[in-house]
Amino acid sequence: MIRYQRHILDNGLRVILHRDTTTPLVTINMLYCVGSRNERPERTGFAHLFEHLMFGGTRQYPDFDRVVNELGGESNAFTNNDYTNYYITVPSENLEPALRLEADRMKGDWDLQGDTWPVLDVQKRVVTEEYNQRYMNQPYGDVWMLLRPLCYKAHPYRWCTIGADIKHVQEATLDDVRHFFNQYYHPSNAILAIAGNIDETAVLKMVQETFGQIRRPRPAPAEPLPQEPDQTAARRQEVSREVPNDALYKAWLMCARHNPDFYAYDMISDVLSNGHSSRLYRRMVVEEQLFSEIDAYIMGDLDAGLFVISGKLNEGVSFDQAEQAIGEELQKLAEEPVSEHELEKVANKFENTFVYSQYKSNDRALCLCYYEMMGDIELVNHEPENYRKVSAQDLQRVAKRLTSERCSTLLIHRKE
After folding, report:
1. Alpha carbon distance 211, 30 (integer Å)
2. Which of 58, 143, 181, 358 has its CA 20 to 30 Å from the CA of residue 102?
């Protein structure tokens, strides 16, 4: 059980405090409710660009990393479709200066040189290099740049966090950056969790002193995101790449994160591919040797995400063979109820993974922010119960939606 205190400052910043006396460290986790889904189609990649820019320094702290190192800490961040997350972990006695450091970059008082910000030009080049290395020059690196626009036609999930076109980042201006910052890097769009060896009363006072005085005009509410219509006809794309093996990716639009069927989709993915005793691994890899590796998983997005089956084909196996075998396993799930033993096994696996994911206080800080963002922070203690409520009939009903006409298929042929 994770015990916590929850507060909301006058400027809208949500604050969650969790005391853990077993560690000499404390983690400051700051989650901004902005990801790639909040970008404009003509200005994509900005959420990820900002992840880089937020380490670029301000007038008060020109060298962010140096200050973190002097505090004996470490920091990092990540961006996904729905949010951007930053953390600093320091010895508990250095919490107050670390809070000042985090609050300072929320203020956005950048170290400008006239009308330019050298950090922006540097980070545009860094992101461009990341794009080239991770997406263009890696085997299977551009999979999601192909699969996302195949699956999504309306929703902004149709582009990756790196952006739909790297030119959007390369052409970003200081005015573009200011607009994005003022819209999304606002106290009322952020969640701060502090977890570690703390005194909650003293820390809340620190937070009020460091963050409470950040008072910028609240931005106008953003336009509602376009929702993805249900897919009614199969989509298919084939490409050739310099890759070790032919690869297959099949994706179905699933429900949003808040929908109760989310848990059924997740459990189906575990029935199919979680462990060597799972259905796809046992049949496709061990018995029939169609694939060298195969996996089923969900994307876990806040809005309607994807249920995906992907795998690398063995030499001499055709795509038709592979797709037929996958179709047979999905049909079996739709027609025959999963046994109680199999259902309990995947529920137990989730609970074990869930508990382990909260082993460290910095993990708990992230979990607290995430479930607060979802609108039900108590799920941090009760999420496994939702998996245990799923019945074999629920899995069967949801599996019936994994049909060929609702599927988007990407085939990657190995270049000879």
Report:
1. 12
2. 358
